[in-house]
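An instance as discussed:

___
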Amino acid sequence: MELVHLDLASGLPPEGIPGGQVECYVVFWWREVPLGDIHIRPGDRPVTPRRLAELAARAVAPAVGDRLFRSGFRQQPPERLAPRTDPPAPLDELLSARAVLERAAAGGPIAGASSPSTTVIICTRDRPAPLGRCLAAVAELRTAPDEVIVVDNAPTDDATKRVAAAAGVRYVREDRPGLSFARNTGVRASRGEVLAFTDDDATVHPHWLDQLVAGFVRDDVMSVTGLVLPASLDHAGQVVFERHMGGFNRGFRPIEYDHGWFSRTCPTGTPVWKVGAGANMALRRAAFDRVGLFDERLGAGAAGCSEDSELWYRLLAEGWTCRYQPTAVVFHHHRSDIAEVQDLARHYSRGHLAALFVQYGRYRHSGNLRRAFVAIPRHYLRRAASDRYWRRGRSPTLRAEVAGYASGLAMLGYAGPARRDEPTGGRASRRAFLRANPFEQPLTLGMFYREKMRAIHAIARPGPVRRILEVGGGQGGLTRLLYPGAVIVNADYDRAFAHRPVNEGAGSHFTCADGTWLPFRDECFDAVTLFDVLEHIPDDTRAVAEARRVLRPGGQLLLSSPNDAWRFPYYRAFRRVCPTDAEIMADWGHVRRGYALAELDRLAGTGHDAAHTFITPLTVIAHDVAFSRLPRRVRRAAGLALAPLTWAGYALHRPSALGTETAVRWTKR
């Protein structure tokens, strides 16, 4: 296959694309900015200048339109929707926006953006020649990184060390074989605020690092990936990789993958592999603090691949954003031999399946298993039965991919509970959390508190969450049960709670404070919890504003409160044995009855990410009996008698069904 790069700033070649017996892959640029590509089959060659202009206009229209108009051309993440295809304007009209393209071609960080320190990390194993080529390209970067680290993974000689020394970069050795081990070693050894990764078989564009850094357009963007183009297509293996395995090209328009996209695609298996490629990615150092390092069960030398996409999965699941920045370009040297590409396809398939199991093990998102056991086998069956492969020649990688899938099934154990070496601050397992129900008779009269704990556990992100502010929870310590490994700072106006065991243990701190005036600096907590607190605070607007002030961007605000369906007792028939509504509110210190979900969103200043109701019309009976005036023995007996009804209501309840209280989560943007 012939590879051609055309700079539209210099005009199209007057002869067009001459005749030839091979397919031609053309990439269109405006100086340093990639704008689009086309494939020209041998039968369509030669291509006249007029026809080439038409093809170029169709290819570059989306990218140019995105820079000019945004709203009409913005690329959306894949969600099983057919792409919009609008007829492009003529090429001369598209290129009339020269000022916009020239600004883009200038490179460098976006206007007004700060310049974080950067580290380039290159992991390699016994490939000194490609490494030398990669380091030579890094040395040509228009903006030099603050440091370059070469991680030598399980070397058999000192050739890599000599190449790194000749290039004047930092050399780090990691004797455990595996790409994830190597990358994690590079992360630990690095000092930059932004860590950029590329592979030893890639060469970076001079503006690569500038554009990766420019992709961090907001504080919630934790990862940026870029465009990966083939360095050459001279050999059959390179063509097979690009055509049959899809290559690494994710298009020529920026794409943002946020938590909303993740939530919409999660039921069917979020396609995180579409975010980008590990050969061209950058992450904030803070990303590793939030969700941990690369999973060392995945990647080359272990399961096969997908250590990068699994990390993106965690970032998206925790509410962060990943961005695809096509102006950050890397040229990848694909394997030239078909047998090597088939071996790569086998490892990719196995690694992808292993990553699905790991993702399910961490988050229990059933979409991962649906993809593993339904979508992937169906995909292979369709390919095997397709006329495309039976009549025009079979896919040269299909058999290898199926073999990789079969070997990946042996890694089903990764779908078990999260590993013990997960970063501290992770959410407790639901079983352990519910078992800690502190209410008397937790399976009968105290079942309502179990409902509350189940709802809170369902909305809380898995973590890790390092530092949490618990507002008004000095007596119960529910946040400590939810995140047992985190540092919990409890703020309560009653100083007597300071000496309760829950506030005196390791990792616990007590501060006597009013929820409307928190004595903490801005953005110093990873999470803030207000469990059954807001309905007690007269100035609830100020309390939520303070909670948001001390919450870092991307952090979670967790709240539980009675909602607009709450009343006591819930059924009139219980009025004879229960305190009045006014008495119970006075006894519990309520200053308001409860909140509609829309009211809570208004207080938070943004829409909620997750909500879960609890204490249903069935289970509320046991709740009201628990707080009735009946003698203790009668209440205990009634709770036991009501247990079948209570458990049925508990089992049948769904997060959005009717309940008298609500647990809600927001993410600070």
Q: What stands out?
A: The longest helix spans residues 338-363. The first strand starts at residue 2 and ends at 7. The chain has 23 helices and 19 strands. Residues 81-87, 108-113 have pLDDT under 50 and may be disordered.
